[in-house]
Every structure is written in C-alpha cells, then in structure tokens.
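Researcher: Here's a chain I'd like modeled. Treat it as a single chain, no partners, no ligands.
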Amino acid sequence: MKNIVLPALLVSSLITFGQGKKENHVQYVKPIIGTQRMGHVYPGATVPFGMVQLSPDTDTIPYETNGKYNGEVYKYCAGYQYDDKTIVGFSHTHFSGTGHADLGDFLIMPTTGELKLNPGVANVPHSGFRSTFSHENEIAAADYYKVKLDDYNITAELTATNRVGFHQYTFPATDQAHIILDMMSGIYNYEDKNVWTFVRVENDSLITGYRQTSGWARTRTVYFAMSFSKPFIQYGTKDNSKKEAYHGFWGKFDQRKNFPEIAGRQIRMYFDFKTIADEKIKIKLALSPVSTINAINNMRTEAPGWDFEALKTKGQALWNKELDKVDITGQQEEKENFYTAMYHAFISPTTYMDVNGEYRGLDQNTHTAKRFTNYTTFSLWDTYRALHPLFNILQPKRNADMIQSMLAHYNQSTLKLLPVWSNSANDNWCMSGYHSVSVIADAIIKGNATGVDANKALDACVATATHRSYDGIGLYIDMGYVPVDKNGVGSSNTLEYAYDDWCIAQLAKKLGRMEIYKTFLKRSENYKNVFDASKGFMNARMSDGSFKKDFDPLSTNGQGFIEGNSWNYSLCVPHAPEQLISLMGGKQHFIQHLDSLFTMQLPDAFFAETEDITRDGIIGGYVHGNEPSHHIAYLYNWAGAAWKTQERIRMILKMQYKAAPDGLGGNDDAGQMSAWYIFSSLGFYPVAPGSADYSIGSPAVDGAVLNLENGKKFIIEVNGQGDKNVYIKKIVLNGKPLTSFTIKHADIMSGGKITFYMSNVPVK
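Model: Modeled as a single isolated chain. Structure tokens:
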C-alpha cells in the first residue's frame, strides 16, 4: 500500500482487490481539521452516523466569563481548534459544524510523571495535564486519529465503532503512568452545566457511570462503560464540587482513593499503571442513552476483543462502503474535496439507540425502536435544504428511519411538535421554521419513506404548523406574517414558514387531502406579506402593517432576520421562483439584482455583526457560509440566464471549498455545506425540497456513477470538462436531448445516463 503525505494528514493511496486496482475512497477523505476561523469540524474517530464521535479537544474555554457570554468559546463548537498548540484530552461526543455546541462527554487523557488533576491553561502548558503537540506528528483519516503527546512521550491513537470509542496509548517506561477520566469537561461548558455524575468501579479493569447535563439539551443523560486492557494498580478521585448544604453521611468514608462509588457534579478520576517501553494500554468506552448495562452490552457486541487494527480496518471498510455510493473521476484535488464532503455529509444525524433497540425518549422513559434505527442530531434549519435530499438519493433507507425518528419524537412530545433541532431526547428549539415537514414531504413525494404512515405524518405536520404558541405561529396564522415588534426575527420566520407550508400542501395533494392542500397552498403565499415594494426587498413588518423605516438590507442586526440580511433573505422563496421574479420586477431586473449580490463590496462594518461568517465565506454580498442563500445561484435558471447559474456555481465551488485546514467558508452545519458541494459538483441541486425536480447547474467532476440502494446506477458523463469550460452546450438524458434545466428524481432513481457537453462559451 502506497502512502502519500498531505498537509497535516496521512492518507493511503491505492488498495488492491483481486486482479485489478480499485480506488479506496478513504484515501480522499481528508477531513478538514477544523476551520481556522471557527474550528467547527473535528478530526477523530467515528463510523458513518455513529453515536460515538471520538476526538481531541484542544482547550477548555468557558461559555461565560464574569457572568457574560464569552465570544471566544464560539471557536470551540467542535472541541478542536487547528491553531491551538495543546490537547487537553479525547472526548467521545461532538457536533460537526453546527455553529452551536454541547457534548464533549467523558474526556480521557493519558499522562506520565507527577499526577495533575487540572487541565491548566494554554499559555502555561505544564500548569495542568494538557500536553503540547505538533501537526507534524498528527494523522487524521476516516475512523482513525493519531497524535504524539509531546510532554509525556505518549502516542495516542483512536478508532471507533458505532457505540464504542477505542483508545490505544503507547507509553514510555515509567512507574507513573496515569489515565485521567474527566467527568467535568464539556463543550460550551460552565460551572453548573453538570447536573450530576456517577462512577462505579466494578473491578480492576471495568468502570461504569453516567453524566447528566443541562445545556443546549436541558435533560440529557448519557451512560458509559469503560474497560482497560490492563488492570490498574490503584485509582482515585478529586471532587471539585461546591460544598453542599446537605449530602448525607458519606463523610464516613475517605472517597479520594480506591473508593468504588463516586457521585458529584465536578469529578475527575485517575487510574495508575506501571509500563515498560512502548507498552500499549488500550481503553474501550461504550455509550448508551439508557443504562450502564446497555453500555456494557454495546461494548461486548461491537468491540469484544482488543485488536485495535482490526477494529480500525472494519470502521474504514464501513466508510468505503458508504463512499462507494458515488464513484467520481476527476483530478486529485477534486476527489479530495468530493470525498471529504461525503465524509462530512455522513457524520450526522447520529444513531441514538443501543444494539438491543432501546433508547431514551422525550418523556425520559425507555422506548424500543421497532423495525427502524432511531436517530438524533437533527439540525433541520440547515439540513432540510440539501443533506436530507441527498439522503433521498444515496441513503433512502436511513432517511426513512430518520423520519420514523422524527415521528417518534412527535409522539413523545407533550407539545405535539415535530423536531426543530433535536438532540439526545431533547429539542433545542434552535433557528426558525418547522422544517421536519420539508424532510417528511420530500421523502414521501419522492417515494422514499418505507415504513412511514404518510397520513399520520401529514397529521403531525399540520399539528406542528398550527401550534399557535410556538415562535409567532399564531400571529402568522392570523396576520399572514410574523410582526417584528412581536418577534425579532419575524420576517425570516415568515419566509421559512411559507416554504414549509408549501411542503405540507404538496404532501396533502399527493395524499388526496385537498382541504389541507388548499389551506396550506394559500399560506405558502405569505412571503408576499413581508415584501416591501417601495424598497424592492423583504423588510421587517410591524403589527400595524407598516414596514421598518430605518431599513438596511445589508445589516444582519435588528432587521427582522436570523443569521442573514435582507439581500439574501429576499431571495428565500425557493418554492415560488417565478412569482418572486415577478414580484421583484421581472426577469431582467431580477438578473441585475442577482448580479449585484454577487459583485458588491461589503463594508468592514458588516463583519462586526457576524459571529460565524468572515470575508472568506462571502462572494460579493452572497453569503455561502449561511444556508438561506444556498439555492440563490440556481435562480438564474428561472430568469432565462442559465449560463449565469453555471458560471456562479463553478465559482462558488472553487472559492468556498478546498482541502485545507481552513477549507470551508463557514460552518459545515451538520453536513449541509458539504451536501451542497456534492450536489453542485454532480451538476444538479434540489432548490425546493418537496418537489421531485432538481435544477441543473454545472458539473465540476469529469464523470460520476451513483450506485443506488435499489441496485441501479445513474451515470453522469461530462464531455469537454475543464476549469474554463463551465458552460453547458447540450444535455442528453438517456439518449434524448434535455430541453429544460430540470431533471426529475425518478430519472435518477430509475438508473440511466445523463451527458453534459461543456464549453468555454456561454449559451445565452
């Protein structure tokens, strides 16, 4: 096996199968190790959609300082920051590019020498158990991470199964080897985040316990079982909890050393060993949402032995199985970008059930998933746009299970609402819209909802969309818009709700429930109610019907929109592009408007208001790093300037994605940014999920084969591909010329071939 060294990473090149050679797609999965600006993509060990996402954490920045939000913490949403020089340990749960955070459970850190039970601070590395490291001694690949902890001369290696994190630490010869288990550490951490933690030492190589936190998810409990490959000599505890007024009579015991039952809010433990040179101490840590018994069962089922290499090989085989769903041809850089994007797209949503099917529900009771896999981590404001539509092509069975999970969430909810942003038997209520309805409608309309009761799903959609007490929905129903004097992001809410209502209408139409169809089709036109014709933009509208007077379409602050400005949100009507074009003055004016968006120069003051977007994530005023704009470049197709769509798409692909530590123009947002890249590189995009149509862009690959779950293949052939040949001369689908810039879902899933003929001259 040949190896090639790439910046900060080592990836394998070719692997031989039988008589011929097949490209191992894991070689191209060069996970972008966190953007230097945000650090929201983590390196580490996980299998596709895995419950365990084991990764290094590089600092312990608190969420608040002196009682106020600490802006620096935003960089640590994924726990890892590429520019940092130290590692504090390796924790088992992370969000990938969500722009908000939680998790970071059960941090493990190997050390030698004097025992330290505080991580210390970055500018004084030896003040705690953290260690310096160098990217020169760091390897990150699919389901594998390796780094040298310089201060201890320890080599750390990580791999994982779905529910088990597997650590392998190579120690020097020492009588003072330690494994630290930090139950205090977490991401977006603060003093009272831990509600309670519990550890039970079962024997000299197995411990169990749980951690309950109140953060982004306010009632989250995760259980664990941790097994050592070698018995520890002794162990101990440091409890950093505040002294409580009453804690019973546990003071009769000395709980600091070799005491087998530990409970408190702020606990760190250590386990001592003696090692010879190059001795490997291995650790398996299994997670469960239900119980420590289930965690042990997960461990015994998924990782019964101690063969690290075998487990890593199995995990990487799982990745290759998923990445093999698309075979592309193209340049090395294109393959690195493409398969990195596929890797990111298949990290979440994450499994949320044990091997026996049990999981904790929103009612805090134990449920059993019957005939489906239960998932969590639904960042739906982001992922309804392209990630779930991508799953409808490449992961239809999983996507159907995700819908089953959403409906289980709805059934367990006292509010009877579909998930908005769910994690670990909680809804975080983050962002706007009720976009579960988009995911559900899109899958059912495309025929990819096996096991889903479509009529019950529609009922859940309607109940969610008519829940008057949630985020201005009552006002939206009564007034046709959400006034910003009642809801600060009322204008973006109105636009998001209008699209979701269109999705409900399409689903109702498919099921023949025409009264619902008529009601929600009418509601889907509510976007018109926040269009200010005097400005030519969507504007903030008040309860009295007037529009905001001091209107600034460039500002993201106080203008009625969430994570975006009016320039981008004014185009956020994906379900009715023809009507939007008419509303904004016709095709020629609309084209000029789009051109202005892509070519304007934003003032520096714009970036003072944005936490998650820098200049690198923006082209002119087009904000690719935030999702409301993701369909915008495709709107030229409806205005009669498809060649401009083709030009813009290829420009965005080049400018916003690269195989480097700062390779993304914004948060990956749980795979949405990467799903946009995958679709757009292949040459088409779901502008309005809930429709069976995809809009044609400009393919960036030399060719591709989509290996579908139904056994069929959809072949993408690109003739005349090149950096300058971004324009489409002709498209042939299954031997017949395609006469529009639209391809249907059935055309893809039925198998066949689409051929693009490219040119360096636009076809106007």
